[in-house]
Amino acid sequence: MALALHLLPLLLFKAQGDPGASLEGRPGDKVNLSCIGVSRPTRWAWAPSFPACKGLSKGRRRILWASSSGTPTVPPIQRFSGRLRALDPGIQRLELLLSAGDSGTFFCKGRQENESRTLLHVLGDKAGCRASGSSQGSVYLQVLISLLGAGLVFGLGALGVVWWRRRACTMRILTPLPCGGPAGCLQWSLLIMPLSMQL
């Protein structure tokens, strides 16, 4: 029991976020992000883990920063608007209501450019993104195969029509040939002239 009480502060420290912490939750859960090791934080940033799944670009984006009025500033048009709030005026701790696509790394930056990082994983983010990507890939492949098949059939059909028309347009010529018998006779030979030779 005494050992558990000694480990409890360490476990709570890790669960709130630190330079190498990781958090996990489901959409609808609330998590606390803590800026550990940064004395006077000035801003928070977020880098999404799966930006393509939500149509976002890679890299960090500012999500909250300290202001001279003492009220932290959260941009009105950003993904965490209405779901992110500071738990203290010094933006040392934040509370975030999780939503799908929130997975990523949260950075707390100080005046000396030192930072604290917390890796957040929202359950379902990665699996959902992969399923969507594989589905789009398979549909694209099916469409490509269908187009190639249609092109092949059309090409072979056109080639067959051209070949048939060239045979139909040949000229038939009967030419007499002398027979090599003692009485003499004529043999008729049928010559078929291709269309290309008629021009």
Which key features would you list for this structure?
single chain, 199 residues, Immunoglobulin-like, 5-stranded mixed β-sheet, 3-stranded antiparallel β-sheet, 10 strands, signal, transmembrane helix, membrane
Continuous helix count? 3
Low-confidence stretches: 7-17, 131-135
Biggest pleated sheet = 5 strands, mixed
Beta strand count: 10
Radius of gyration: 39 Å
CATH domain fold name of one domain: Immunoglobulin-like
CATH superfamily of one domain: Immunoglobulins
CATH hierarchy, class of one domain: Mainly Beta
Shape: rod-shaped
Strand residue percentage = 25-35%
Order of strands, main sheet, comes to 1-8-7-3-4
Overview of the structural elements:
The protein is α+β, with helices and mostly antiparallel strands and 199 residues long. It has a domain at 2-123: Immunoglobulins (Immunoglobulin-like, Sandwich). The chain contains 3 helices and 10 strands, in the order αββββββββαββα. It has helices at 2-16, 125-168, 195-198; strands at residues 21-25, 30-34, 41-48, 61-65, 84-86, 93-97, 104-110, 115-122, 171-178, 186-193. The strands form 3 sheets. Strands 1-8-7-3-4 form a 5-stranded mixed sheet, with helices on one face. A 3-stranded antiparallel sheet has the order 2-6-5, with no helix packed on it. β9 (171-178) and β10 (186-193) form a beta hairpin. The longest helix has 44 residues, at 125-168. The protein starts with a helix and ends with a helix. Residues 7-17 and 131-135 have low confidence and may be disordered. It holds the Pfam family G6B. The chain crosses the membrane at residues 139-164. InterPro entries: G6B, G6B_V-set.
